[in-house]
UniProtKB/TrEMBL annotation, chain A:
Pfam families: ABC_tran (PF00005), oligo_HPY (PF08352). GO terms for molecular function: ATP binding. It is found in: Cell inner membrane. This is ABC transporter ATP-binding protein. It comes from Benzoatithermus flavus. Keywords: ATP-binding, Cell inner membrane, Cell membrane, Membrane, Nucleotide-binding, Translocase, Transport.
Automatic annotation (TrEMBL), chain B:
Pfam families: BPD_transp_1 (PF00528). This is ABC transporter permease. Belongs to the binding-protein-dependent transport system permease family. Keywords: Cell membrane, Membrane, Transmembrane, Transmembrane helix, Transport. Residues 96-285 form the ABC transmembrane type-1 domain. The keyword Lipoprotein does not apply. It is a multi-pass membrane protein. InterPro entries: BP-dependent_transpt_permease (IPR050366), MetI-like (IPR000515), MetI-like_sf (IPR035906).
């Protein structure tokens, strides 16, 4: 605060509207933002809060129906509203660069990466071809891509998603921009790959001094990458401040709601459950009078919060901490911690599902000419190799792994959409591994149901919600009387806490979370014994995620269902699961109870996974492990240990030649690794609460 | 969320209102409105034909009267009479009934066949797909007009044969559209959900998949109704259409051509009728596509 430095980017009282069928929709209202030189500012909020609209407005890519209704965007002191199309074109890509969520959408699939990179200096700085090329290669090396020359000659589809995103970042940096806008740059990537990109982003800001605007829904990522944070709610800034300040001394009930709905270390489904934010984000034309967060706020007082626009109030003038709350200094932030509702852990019953040496290979007929000449060359994808585990009644078994690890294939085999190549899956003692769903007896089908990942796909858009649940009741519930079936569907809607009027709604009238609830109601309609949940909340916003997770655990507890929870989200798994199975390239690397897996001894892969997960808690210290390289293709798995190509604790030759032994550390806790057991046991924990936090907890 | 839960039994919303809601969407596209108005006008005319005070369409009254001429009994021939002395207006209106009935019927039959082929090929895949696609490709490789001529010259001209000919010519195209849509739709989770609860293939194809393909199909059906109208008129013109003497637009044009010099109106009026109906269907299709893209 010493001398007045000119901000790189400044949004002042910015209001952005979209013109639609319903009239003019104010997407962003009175939004202020300031990015200083060298500073990284995080913009957080749930979907529909207007964070991407802000980014698009800065780039002036609002499209035909969007317009800046009020306020100004100033870039290095110049008002961007006054700039011509030509000036804007010069600015974009040279002074302001943007990195989007989908790397493949930012790269032209029909040009080599070299061509696309070289274009940037050629166009913006008019340098020679040779120099442009040289700079491109240097930049590829700077974003830590192995073998830049090879990448230059490659087409985008020939490199992996993580590498593509690095190329996009390299392209953005080539013109040496003053401002880099990152819109969810790692959302489409796996956690271990994400960790590498995050590392790179931090390095960039340190090395190039580039100012950054980092847009994300993930508070943990913001904490790792940013200096300051703006929390958005329903088109306005709810809270602004330094990351440390906002994370440790939040002064807006919405921010607090966000933090209580994410599974931080310490949360537990039995003793310290997540607290979802009730209600839904209001639509822009249905915003309430007074405080826009009011209807969902636990501290709402009609007399104080129910009228007029709430202004931003300064909490700490020194750090610039401000919150849009009239009661921020009245609320007792420490005492008003969410209530702890301790519940007894559900006692586990007998084993219900037993997976025994399960193998699933896919055979790909070669379509190449060479293959035809040689006769039938068949390549094998080993999607699942030697899966062994068991799940008991009322138990939640999480299957964790990154994309391509075979977890979804396993779900398909369990459900009978695919049949196993070898091995058994015993459901109450009967083997069903090789029975496709058409050949399974109705009772088996009823016993085994599934909750799907994508809320937009899980319901048939042509039929009413009630009709879709009723179909399951009719098939499995043994009911044929329409009135009784309708009564059952109403009960199921009650069970998932949806109003009964939803019976006649069409899926398009429902929000993502509501659709997912209907999906859960449908899965539980036939009173199944085992439910396979394939990433049931990964597509939902955090506050909704908490509510749906909560619902799933409640129903499970009540019905004593076995839950096979397939996920890539380790935070959620720690919160939810009783047992964890960690998979990599079709094999189980480690399995055990949640405590065993999340504490040493670790498999090196588990250790890396744990360290890669961003945690939105400033009091947590994490071990820093960033894996090299990419997940190998299941078509060409490496010999020896599947993890040897990326392992940070690789021993040497033995890992490359011999398959590792499976060692048992405790009954049911096994690790597949060459490293001597005592060395594994001597590992430090990855996640540690800082000392001061430990005191606070006790 | 808990506050939203109510245990009282709510009433089902009326179906009529949701139908009107769907029709209300038409208002968003002027093009669709114009198309719908033209088509609707013809449909209404065809429906109320028996109630109108018209001459018998097949009765010879007075040949070569111009539009507006007064007949022997003092009645007016608003659109004149043809070379055989038949009232053109009456023939036009009765003809509209005929063309609309057969075009709709032929398109509907083509759709049933094409959709079944498409949904089976798309959903079952493999051998089914190969076989059905092969049949479709063979049919598509036939010149359409030759196909019509072969069918109708072999089997004689009748309404049923027009339906047959149109089905042969259109079903492969419909099959391709449906197959493409189904290939995409069958990867959706709601289809997996149906599979995992052990639903039969027919249930999945007819209840889970086909209703979701309806958007593009409605647009295509409007276009195809236009094509079929042209086809029926062409066949009529060539003397292969619906058997005379009942009025048929294409046949009216054909009959009027040789005497066109004396009674141009008898040729122009039915030609305009064909064009307007086809235009109506095309505009409606265009407008519907525009509306569907807006969302």
């Amino acid at each position: 605060m010493a001398e007045p430095v000119q901000p790189i980017l400044e949004c002042e009282d910015l209001s952005i509207s979209y013109l639609t069928r319903q009239g003019e929709i104010p997407a962003v209202v009175d939004f202020n933002l300031r990015v200083m030189p060298g500073e990284a500012v995080g913009l957080v909020g749930e979907s529909g809060c207007g964070k991407s609209t802000v980014a698009l407005a800065i780039m002036r890519y609002l499209g035909r129906n969007g317009r800046i209704a009020k306020g100004a965007i100033r870039f290095m002191g110049r008002d961007m509203a006054g700039m011509s199309e030509e000036e804007l074109r010069q600015l974009r890509g040279s002074k302001i660069a943007m990195v989007y969520q989908e790397p493949m959408a930012s790269l032209n699939p029909s040009l080599t990466i070299g061509r696309q990179l070289v274009e940037v200096p050629l166009y913006h700085e008019k340098v020679s071809q040779a120099e442009a090329r040289q700079r491109a290669v240097r930049m590829l090396a700077a974003v830590k891509l192995p073998d830049p020359q090879r990448i230059m000659a490659a087409y985008p589809h020939q490199i992996s998603g993580g590498q593509q995103q690095r190329v996009v970042i390299a392209m953005a940096l080539l013109s040496n921009p003053s401002l880099l806008i990152l819109d969810e740059p790692t959302t489409a990537l796996d956690v271990t790959v994400e960790a590498g990109i995050v590392e790179l982003i931090k390095e960039i800001s340190a090395r190039f001094g580039t100012s950054m605007l980092y847009i994300s829904h993930n508070l943990g990522l913001i904490q790792e990458t940013c200096d300051r944070i703006t929390v958005m709610y329903s088109g306005e800034a709810a809270e602004v401040g330094s990351v440390r300040e906002v994370f440790e001394r939040m002064r807006h009930p919405y921010t607090r709601g966000l933090f209580s709905s994410i599974p931080l270390p310490g949360a537990d489904k039995n003793t310290r459950p997540l607290v979802p934010i009730p209600g839904q984000l209001p639509l822009p034309h249905e915003r309430p009078k007074g405080c826009w967060f009011g209807p969902r706020c636990a501290f709402f007082v009609e007399a104080k919060c129910g009228h007029g626009r709430v202004a931003m109030e300064t909490v700490d003038p020194l750090t610039g901490h401000a919150a849009r709350c009239r009661r921020w200094d009245e609320i007792d932030w420490e005492a008003a911690k969410p209530p702890v509702r301790a519940a007894e852990p559900a006692p586990l019953g007998p084993v219900v599902v037993e997976v025994d040496r399960l193998k699933k290979y896919y055979e790909l007929g070669s379509v190449s000419l060479l293959g035809l000449v040689r006769g039938r060359t068949v390549r094998t994808v080993k999607a699942n190799e030697q899966l062994d585990f068991a799940a008991r009644e009322a138990e939640t078994v999480a299957i964790v792994g990154e994309s391509g690890c075979g977890k979804s294939t396993f779900a398909k085999v369990v459900m009978g959409l695919e049949t196993a190549t070898d091995g058994e899956i015993r459901l109450n003692g009967t083997d069903i591994a090789k029975l496709p769903v058409q050949d399974r007896p109705p009772e088996t089908i009823r016993t085994l149901q599934m909750v799907f990942q994508n809320p937009f796909d899980t319901l048939n858009p042509s039929h009413t919600v009630g009709g879709q649940i009723a179909r399951v009741v009719r098939r499995f519930g043994g009911e044929s009387d329409p009135a009784r079936i309708r009564e059952r569907v109403f009960e199921l809607l009650d069970l998932v806490k949806l109003p009964r009027a939803f019976y006649w709604r069409r899926p398009r009238q429902l929000s993502g979370g509501q659709k997912q609830r209907v999906g859960i109601a449908r899965a539980f309609a036939g009173a199944p014994k085992v439910v396979v949940a394939d990433e049931p909340v990964s597509a939902l916003d955090v506050s909704v995620q908490a509510a749906v997770t909560q619902l799933l655990t409640e129903i499970q507890r009540e019905k004593r269902t076995t839950l096979l929870f397939i996920s890539h989200d380790l935070s959620l798994v720690r919160y939810l699961a009783d047992r964890v199975v960690v998979m990599y390239l079709g094999q189980i690397m480690e399995q055990g109870t949640t405590d065993e897996v999340f504490n040493p001894p670790y498999h090196p892969y588990t250790e890396a996974l744990l360290s890669a997960v961003p945690i939105a808690d400033t009091r947590i210290r994490k071990k820093h492990i960033v894996l090299e390289g990419e997940i190998p293709s299941a078509l060409r798995p490496p010999p020896g240990c599947p993890f040897q190509t990326r392992c940070h604790r690789k021993l040497g030759k033995i890992c490359e030649t011999e398959p590792p032994p499976r060692r048992e550390f405790a009954p049911g806790h096994t690790i597949l690794c060459h490293i001597a057991p005592e060395k594994l046991a001597a590992m430090d924990p990855v996640i540690v609460a800082a000392p001061e936090a430990r005191h606070a907890a006790e | 969320m808990a506050t939203l839960t109510r245990t009282d039994v709510p009433a089902a919303p009326s179906r009529l209102r949701s139908l009107f809601g769907a029709l209300g969407l038409l208002r968003e596209s002027p093009v669709a409105m114009i198309g719908a108005a033209i088509v609707l006008a013809w449909v209404i005319v065809a429906l109320i034909a028996p109630l109108l005070p018209l001459h018998d369409p097949n009765q010879a009254i007075a040949p070569f009267k111009f539009p507006g001429a007064v007949g022997p009994k003092g009645d007016v021939f608003w659109l004149g009479t043809d070379h055989k002395g038949r009232d053109v207006l009456s023939r036009l209106i009765w003809g509209s009934q005929r063309v609309l009935v057969w075009a709709t019927l032929a398109t509907a039959v083509a759709y049933v066949v094409g959709m079944l082929m498409g949904v089976v090929a798309g959903y079952r895949g493999g051998w089914w797909d190969e076989a059905i696609s092969f049949v479709a490709n063979v049919l598509l490789s036939f010149p359409v007009m030759v196909l019509y001529l072969v069918i109708i010259s072999r089997l004689g001209s009748s309404g049923a044969n027009i339906v047959l000919a149109v089905t042969f010519a259109s079903a492969p195209g419909i099959m391709r559209i449906v197959r493409g849509l189904v290939l995409d739709l069958k990867t959706r989770d709601y289809v997996h959900a149906a599979q995992t609860r052990g639903e039969s293939s027919w249930y999945i194809m007819l209840v889970e998949l086909l209703p979701n393909a309806r958007g593009p199909l409605i647009v295509d059906a409007c276009l195809r109704l236009g094509y079929t109208t042209i086809t029926i008129a062409t066949l009529g013109f060539l003397g292969l259409g619906l058997p005379p003497p009942d009025p048929d637009w294409g046949q009216m044009i054909a009959e009027a051509v040789p005497v066109g010099v004396f009674a141009a109106h008898a040729m122009v009026v039915p030609a305009l009728a064909v064009s307007s109906l086809v235009l109506g269907f095309n505009l409606l299709a265009d407008g519907l596509r525009e509306i569907s893209l807006k969302d």
